[in-house]
């Protein structure tokens, strides 16, 4: 039901084009603000004590939401993060084409999991958080297939979790996928929309 009362603004604590596109396509009116969070520094002390990928995804989504929330009073601020789990451990994003090539060689013919978490903060307090997972089975790739793929993709895809964006040429890397498509793209939209409805940020 529509409500004439003014709703709190919705802010996305990210400048990720894919996350922004997901919200826009869902008809959500929002503002995007880049969080001032050093992800590697935030996760470093927890990596040293063996934090799980799920813990790290939740941690970083909270940090992003809280950082922007302190600069956007009274708004519902959405922070999101995605961590890849491979062989039971968090797997960092590659930082060069050489690392990306090695990354794909390790993943070739094997399965990995993506954990996509989000947190919603308001006035510096987390009011909701959740996470979803998806399992992706990469087909066996020889060196020629990897080189052909790397030649197709720009750096913003290259340095993402898993070295792919499933909505682009990355779909060619897989034989099977288990899980929600939005989770793979980095923002579990069904869970997020349900949370925004419960918070009164969007219409029921």
Q: Compute the number of helices.
A: 8
Kindly report how far apart the N and C termini lie: 6 Å
User: What's the number of extended β-strand segments?
Assistant: 7
Mean pLDDT: 91
What report would you give on this structure?
By secondary structure, the chain is an alpha/beta fold. The protein has one domain (10-198): Maf protein, CATH 3.90.950.10. 37% of the residues lie in helices and 25% in strands. The chain is built from 8 helices and 7 strands, in the order βαβααββαββααβαα. The protein has helices spanning 17-25, 39-47, 53-69, 97-107, 143-152, 155-158, 181-185, 189-198, and strands spanning 10-12, 31-32, 76-86, 89-91, 111-122, 125-138, 174-178. Strands 1, 2, 3, 4, 5, 6 and 7 form a 7-stranded mixed sheet that branches. Strand 5 and strand 6 form a beta hairpin. The protein starts with 9 loop residues before the first strand and ends in a 6-residue tail after the last helix. The model has no long low-confidence stretch (mean pLDDT 91).
Outline:
The chain is α/β, with parallel strands linked by helices and 204 residues long. It is built from eight helices and seven strands.
């Amino acid at each position: 039901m529509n409500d004439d009362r003014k709703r709190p603004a919705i802010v996305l604590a990210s400048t990720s084009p894919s996350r922004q596109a997901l919200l826009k396509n869902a008809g959500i009116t929002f503002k995007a603000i880049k969080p001032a969070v050093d992800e590697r520094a935030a996760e470093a002390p927890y990596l040293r004590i063996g934090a799980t990928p799920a813990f790290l995804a939740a941690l970083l989504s909270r940090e992003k939401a809280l950082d922007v929330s302190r600069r956007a009073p009274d708004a519902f601020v959405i922070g999101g993060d995605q961590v890849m789990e491979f062989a039971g451990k968090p797997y960092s994003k590659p930082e060069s084409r050489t690392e990306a090539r090695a990354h794909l060689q390790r993943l070739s013919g094997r399965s990995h999991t993506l954990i996509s978490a989000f947190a919603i903060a308001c006035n510096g307090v987390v009011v909701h958080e959740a996470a979803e997972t998806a399992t992706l089975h990469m087909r066996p790739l020889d060196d020629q297939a990897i080189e052909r793929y790397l030649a197709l993709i720009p750096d913003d895809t290259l340095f993402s979790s898993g070295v792919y964006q499933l909505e682009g040429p990355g779909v060619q890397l897989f034989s099977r996928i288990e899980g929600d498509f939005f989770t793979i793209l980095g923002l579990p939209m069904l869970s997020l929309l349900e949370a925004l409805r419960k918070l009164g940020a969007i219409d029921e």
